[in-house]
Design a protein that fits this description.
heterodimer, A: mainly alpha, MetI-like fold, B: about 325 residues, mainly alpha, 15 helices
Chain lengths: ~300, ~325
């Protein structure tokens, strides 16, 4: 199964070793001077890449650093880079001093994201099977229907969802968020999973079917092991989108089911010295997403482009 | 490689039992049952999406033609197009249409250009390339509300934000007084845009880098050996190849940025002329309780998105077709 993945560039240096860059050096008529010049230029461009990368990373680094500073050190001008480190910001965020604990919203976020992701996987895997391995007629129309729902701005459905939810008494419940996040991520997951399932060589599926394997055991023994990394990446991306969601959560929840992003909005207005606590809050809430995102790094682009780019 | 998976004959001979002469009616029934057996795994997902995303939108369209303010529950009546007239005549609403367009176009174009530059830089081999690629993704992986909070408080704050702090430090080197601008108040829309560009450049970069790495390198090497300059290679080989990827990145980016709510809500709370349509709809709904006008504005957002989406679908469908070659 390594053959189809071999040509998929992941951007890590190890996988690009095979690219015929060396051709340039062996091209006839190339003088030594030009080769040295181009190497120097390559070095400069590498340096530029580092500078640009660090510039983009700087706000993240600053957020992490400030979260470990005391409130007084965090709010100095010019900034105090080398101030002593402390966990006070995190202690304040996790409610050592104030009464509001972030644990209920964090647990709400975790349960809404995890359950909706599991639901998405259960619904999207069979759907992707019916769109790639044994496709229904007009499967591409179905694919585009799924995609078009993604282009319907979520805000346009907000009012009816609010009205229906308040009528059936579903406001301020995690169940409602789970249903909405599942529908939000299902189209993405169907597109991603279809692209992963269609990478499975058809010969393997035919061989399994000839051997008399049932559909269930084809799923268990062939499909899930081969497209496992892709399915995991799909799950991680769905988790990220659910975890990040703010608009629905802030309108449809109040005191019981409010999520971590809604909790973060309590820091929108500035009040005194609290920068270290804000940074600690931002780091703590972003932490699961950073972990999930870096874990799914190699498949991130395929997921974000809905499987269109590999 | 995928072609064989993608294009099995619509009716495989497998379901028909071999060695039997099935009457024609049975065969048709069998084919129908086979078609439904194929559809069955798809239906739960399809029904779920239709019920949860399409039904509310139909209700939104209906409500957009009703005069309905929940503060006056007795005055609910058919309002015709009055809500749409309000969307386009009300200064706030019109302003938010303009803001949405300005915000989306600026963020998409700037992050697309930056993303292309970074992708070109990362397409070359250099020491620590994997590390730079990894840290470049980080901005996209900060929770949007958290990123907006960081920009608002830790970077833009006029008293202790990093920007003014860096200015103080830099001019301090020359013993000069530092200008201490109030970034958000001076340029509210640009403040929101900068934070969004920072978050979305990695997204563009990832798609464009994947595009760059799928270039046919042998052809490019051949052109290089034939004496094409770097600029010629970029202009006549890389850019045409990248067109589809640029389109895809721009269109997917616009779909997400048109809907942006988090950054506007957090950084400016919609003030100072930065309220875009999603924020205005939220406000109409939450503060003015004008359900009719909020719905009409929602329909307007959808129509705007459909305009973008038509192009997006076309561009994605060419990619899908090529995959199925």
């Amino acid at each position: 199964m390594s053959a189809p993945t071999l040509d998929r560039p992941t951007g890590t240096p190890s996988t690009t070793r095979g690219r015929p860059r060396s051709l340039r050096a062996s091209a006839p008529g190339m003088t030594a001077g030009r080769s040295i010049g181009s190497r120097a230029r390559g070095g400069v461009l590498g340096l530029v890449a580092w500078i640009v990368g660090l510039a983009f990373f700087a706000p993240v680094a600053w957020m992490v650093l400030t979260s470990f500073h005391s409130e007084t050190d965090a709010a100095t001008n010019p900034p105090s880079l080398f101030a002593p480190l402390t966990l006070d910001g995190y202690a304040n965020f996790f409610g050592a001093n104030s009464g509001a604990s972030p644990w209920p919203p964090l647990i709400n976020s975790a349960s809404a994201s995890v359950v909706s992701t599991l639901l998405v996987l259960c619904l999207a895997l069979p759907a992707a099977y019916a769109l790639s391995i044994r496709p229904v007629e007009k499967w591409s129309d179905v694919m585009f229907f799924f995609l078009s729902t993604k282009m319907l701005p979520m805000v346009a459905g907000l009012l009816p969802i609010y009205l229906i939810a308040s009528r059936i008494g579903a406001l301020d419940s995690i169940g409602l968020l789970i249903v909405l996040y599942t529908s939000m991520n299902l189209p993405i997951a169907v597109w991603m999973m279809r692209s992963f399932l269609s990478e499975i060589p058809v010969e393997i599926l035919e061989a399994a079917a000839l051997d008399g394997a049932s559909l269930l055991s084809i799923f268990r023994r062939v499909i899930i092991p081969i497209s496992g990394p892709g399915l995991a990446a799909t799950a991680l991306i769905c988790f990220i989108f659910s975890w990040n969601e703010l608009l629905f959560a802030s309108v449809l929840t109040s005191t019981k089911a409010f999520t971590a992003p809604v909790f973060l909005t309590s820091f929108v207005t500035s009040q005194g010295l609290f920068l270290a606590q804000v940074c600690a809050a931002a780091v703590a809430v972003s932490f699961p997403v950073l972990v999930a995102g870096f874990a799914a790094q190699d498949k991130l682009v395929q997921g974000l482009s809905l499987g269109a780019v590999k | 490689m995928t072609a064989t998976v993608e294009a099995p004959a619509p009716h495989e001979p497998r379901p028909a039992a071999p060695g039997f002469r099935t009457p024609r009616r049975d065969a048709a029934a069998l084919a129908r049952a086979g078609a439904w057996a194929r559809r069955a795994p798809l239906l739960p997902a399809l029904l779920f999406v239709i019920v949860v995303t399409q039904v509310p939108f139909v209700i939104t369209i209906v409500v957009s033609f009703i005069s309905w303010n929940s503060l006056y529950p007795n005055d609910v009546a058919f309002g015709g197009v009055s809500n749409y007239v309000a969307v386009f005549t009300d200064a706030n609403m019109r302003g938010s249409v303009v803001t949405t367009i300005a915000l989306t176009v600026t963020v998409v174009l700037v992050s697309l250009v930056l993303g292309l530059v970074v992708a070109l830089l990362l397409d070359r081999k250099f020491l620590g390339r994997g590390i730079v690629r990894t840290i470049m993704i980080a901005p996209f992986l900060v929770v949007p509300v958290a990123a907006a909070l960081i920009w608002k408080h830790a970077l833009y704050n006029p008293e202790y934000g990093l920007f003014n702090g860096a200015l103080t430090w830099f001019t301090g080197l020359f013993g000069l007084p530092a200008p201490q601008p109030d970034w958000i108040t001076n340029n509210p829309l640009m403040a929101v845009e900068a934070a969004l560009i920072w978050q979305w450049t990695p997204f563009m970069m990832l798609i464009l880098l994947a595009g760059l790495q799928s270039r046919p390198l042998d052809v490019i090497e051949a052109a290089r050996v034939d004496g094409a300059s770097s600029w010629q290679l970029f202009r006549y080989m890389t850019l045409p190849h990248m067109r589809r990827y640029l389109e895809l990145a721009a269109l997917l980016g616009s779909i997400y940025i048109v809907q942006n709510f988090d950054a506007v809500f957090t950084i400016t709370s919609g003030g100072l002329g930065t309220a875009n349509l999603p924020y205005t709809i939220y406000q109409q709904f939450f503060q003015a309780h004008d359900y009719g006008a909020a719905s009409a504005a929602g329909v307007v957002v959808v129509i705007g998105t459909i305009a973008i989406a038509t192009f997006a679908l076309r561009s994605v469908s060419t990619l899908l077709k090529e995959e199925n070659r």
